[in-house]
Design brief:
The chain is α+β, with helices and mostly antiparallel strands. Among the domains are: about 90-120, no CATH class; about 135-365, no CATH class. The chain is about 30% helix and about 10% strand. It has helices at about 55-65, 110-120, 135-145, 160, 165-175, 185-195, 260-265, 270-280, 285-295, 305-310, 320-330, 345-375, 415-435; strands spanning about 90-95, 100, 200, 215-220, 235-240, 245-255, 335-345, 395-400, 405. A five-stranded mixed beta sheet has the order 3-5-6-7-4. Strands 1-2 form a two-stranded antiparallel ribbon. Helix 8 packs across helix 11 (about 320-330). Residues about 1-15, about 85-110, about 115-125, about 385-410 and about 430-474 have low confidence and may be disordered.
């Protein structure tokens, strides 16, 4: 007889289960097990800090900021470690490859070396360029770029490279006159030195000429010329009055003349200044001749007519500088431009002239001083007035009892005529200056006291210039 357990639930402390009965499955909860964190066994404690500010705390705070600065620590020398002593040398002034000690060195040659350094520094090229003839940058750069703007590297010591000489020295040593741009030389001088290809140009009239040895530049002329493939010229550039510096071996290349449009783009004062020079200078005679023939004959002059004018030494000053400017404004005349490019540098030549010029110059000065001493003093009239220079061309002083009195010139002659000419010239300059954009009159004339060089070609036998390149001895 099997026993049946009653399924009736009874209230008791420990419920009874059937032996084969399985525990009921728990109800499904909408909770992720991973999100369930174990309950902390301890309660968090709260910590409260009370800060009491004292006077010493500010000092500590400043100390914290200062701690970020690395203190300077003087290294301590370890007496056990031997220190190798080094010889202290004086400071040196370097100029290229040579080192020159400063003055006061124990070396016996220091004073001489320091003096040489001062000479080298004082020999720095200083240019005397007249303002008002510069063309615009586009006109200049397009012609220089055609031959290449890269300069020729000159490696010679600047103290020697920048030593200039005078035209009188070049003429005395190598021959040729001291005025022409391409001076011809005698066969004797050529046989002695073997040099007959010299070229001289001035920064006064050629503001775009090279500024330093080896640099390219432009050369202006009254007439274009095709230089072809001629050998390079020994080129000298006038830096200042009678100071000429050898720049190197230059070739001259034909460049396009300034067009009418380029000419009109120049400032008014530049055009006026060029017109004045072409009217005033001897090398502009052919330009003036063509302008005169167009005005009087209504046509261009023939070659025979120009040759006859050259033989007759006609200056064609009947026209004015305004007529010259108008001819260029209309495009009837064009400013000729040639590009010059350095293709070499004769270091031996520059060393020679830089060493010989001081000796020659000292002897030349001594000779001139000796001539001045030998010159007899000027004769004087009673009362202390010089008479040998007067010759009736200046006001004479009448000697009377009492103070001297001025009277009019006894003989009217050259003095009166010169005075009238000067007055007329001043009036003409004053009238023309109104249209010259405030160009100063003293800037128009580039002639110096020591020479009358413009940098334009001129024949030795013809002071009015030439319409072609001068002939050179070969």
């Amino acid at each position: 007889m099997s026993l049946q357990l009653s399924d009736t639930k009874k209230r008791s402390a420990s419920p009874s289960f059937h032996a084969s009965a399985r525990p009921p499955a728990p109800a499904a909860l909408d909770i992720d097990v991973d999100d369930v964190k174990p309950r902390s066994s301890k309660k968090p404690r709260m910590k409260v800090e009370v800060v009491i500010e004292r006077s010493s705390s500010r000092t500590k705070e400043k100390g914290k900021h200062r701690a970020s600065i690395v203190p300077k620590v003087e290294p301590e020398e370890d007496q056990k470690v031997p220190i190798k002593s080094e010889r202290v040398t004086p400071d040196l002034v370097a100029t290229d490859s040579k080192e020159i000690p400063k003055a006061g060195d124990s070396n016996d040659r220091s004073d001489e070396a320091w003096a040489s350094a001062n000479v080298a520094l004082s020999a720095k090229i200083k240019l005397d360029i007249k303002k008002g003839l510069e063309l615009d940058a586009a006109t200049v750069q397009t012609r220089i770029d055609a031959v290449g703007r890269d300069p020729f590297l000159v490696a010679l010591d600047p103290a020697i490279r920048d030593t200039w000489v005078s035209r009188a020295f070049i003429s005395a040593v190598f021959g040729g006159n001291s005025v022409a741009a391409f001076p011809s030389r005698s066969p004797e001088k050529i046989a002695k030195h073997g040099l007959d290809n010299f070229f001289f140009l001035s920064l006064g009239l050629h503001p775009h000429a090279p500024r330093e040895p080896g640099q390219p530049g432009l050369w202006f002329d009254s007439m274009p010329y095709d230089w072809g493939d001629e050998k390079p010229f020994y080129t000298f550039v006038r830096l200042r009055s009678n100071d000429w510096l050898y720049f190197g071996q230059y070739r001259i290349f034909k460049s396009p003349s300034s067009s009418q449009q380029e000419w009109l783009l120049q400032p008014t004062k530049v055009r006026n200044k060029w017109a004045r020079y072409i009217w005033e200078k001897p090398w502009g005679w052919q330009n003036r001749a063509r302008i005169t023939f167009r005005r009087d004959e209504g046509r261009e002059p023939t070659d025979d007519e120009l040759d006859d004018a050259l033989a007759a030494k006609r200056s064609f000053k009947e026209i004015t500088w305004q007529d010259v400017r108008d001819a260029y404004d209309r495009g009837e005349e064009l400013l000729a431009v040639s590009a010059i490019k350095c293709v070499g540098y004769d270091e031996q030549f520059q060393r020679k002239i830089s060493a010989e010029f001081p000796i020659w110059d000292e002897a030349d000065r001594a000779q001139k001083d000796a001539k001045k001493k030998k010159k007899p003093p000027a004769k004087r009239k009673e009362g202390g007035q010089k008479t040998d220079h007067n010759h009736g061309t200046e006001d004479e002083v009448a000697i009377t009892e009492g103070p001297s009195q001025r009277k009019k010139n006894v003989r009217k002659g050259a003095g009166e005529k010169k005075g009238k000419d000067r007055a007329a010239k001043r009036r003409a300059d004053a009238e023309s200056s109104e249209e010259d954009d405030d160009v100063e009159l003293r800037d128009w004339n580039l002639d110096d006291d020591d020479d009358d060089y413009d940098g334009m070609p001129a024949l030795a036998s013809m002071s009015q210039g030439t319409r072609s390149r001068p002939r050179r001895s070969v």
